Amino acid sequence: MTEVTEPLPRYRRVLLKMSGEALMGDRGFGHDPSTLRRLAEEVQGVHAREVEQCLVIGGGNMVRGEQYAANGIERTTGDYMGMLATVINALAVQSVLEQTGLQTRVLSAIPMAAVCEPYIRRRAIRHMEKGRVVICAGGTGNPFFTTDTAAALRAAELGCDVLLKGTKVDGVYSADPMRDPDAVRFERLSYHEVLARDLKVMDAPAISLARESAIPIIVFSLRSPGALIRVLHGDGPHTMITEEAPRTKEARP
Ligand code: UDP
Fold it and tell me: Does the N terminus or the C terminus of the chain have fewer Cβ atoms within 10 A?
């Protein structure tokens, strides 16, 4: 029991970026109910440790603007479709979070009065102060951006102490670990190294924004049960991206 309520000394307010893919488990599209429930329990576990949380939800499990553009839909239209997909995902996440007893609010960068609140910075902060989990939908509200950039933007303007980037793999690798057996995971990287080596972890605007606001980024696997709590304690496999990368050590998982 002590383990469940032990406070996390490192962080007061965190931003968790959940990609659309994280919601679909092993399916090829949409949502996997058991994955959604597990993620909800993990978020609840962080809340129980008195950490304020803001989630930024992706939409790649349903629509990616770029792919639609390749199939003859205008790029900007595809991007707006992608942003709408994030709202659908945010509602699914809200529903499962509330089943764990959490109070939540969905705030969308694209106003959608019938289903959620508009994104207003001061309101988002107030919700978190009241113990509600804020779920940011609609990305940045602009085409040609990604929800990674939205995550960095919200982390900066909402005063988050860290940006947690949950992915399919447990950190940033020197090559694609699914294809290259020699790929190694970095324990720490600087923002500069990520940009200079063009490491495919988040897009460049997201990294630059985090760098400007000195928000550390932790890349970890959302597929691994309990990983969210572990990385908040500084444990478990992950890659930490900060201004300085004191150890340039690469570690095998
Ligand atoms: N999108 C956008 N502007 C934003 C955020 C997202 O146009 O600020 C669109 C874009 O088409 C993107 C899609 O929404 O492909 C889904 O978002 P993203 O790919 O970031 O989702 P994730 O990969 O995190 O699931």
Answer: N
